Amino acid sequence: MGGVLVSDVRTRGPAERAGLRRGDLILKAGGGPVSNIEQLGGVLLAAKAGSLISLDVRRGEETVSVALERR
Fold first, then answer.
1. Which of 24, 28, 33, 55 is the most exposed place for a label (fewest CB within 10 A)?
2. Which of 52, 43, 56 lies closest to 2, judged by CA?
3. pLDDT tens for each residue of 12-45
4. E strand residue ranges, 1-71
């Protein structure tokens, strides 16, 4: 299984506001699968400032969806 592991979440940053947690595994961003940080970065950079990017995240035994605001 691919994905991008969240190793740190900045206090009061966009990831924390979206509900991401240390240890989450980001599986999809913007509707498409991500298997590495470069793919995730590409999705984030392509989004317009102020837009919301949907992320599918594996957290423990469940998959949750969060919306990350592009700054």
1. 33
2. 56
3. 999 999 999 999 999 999 999 999 999 999 999 9
4. 4-5, 25-29, 32-33, 52-59, 62-69
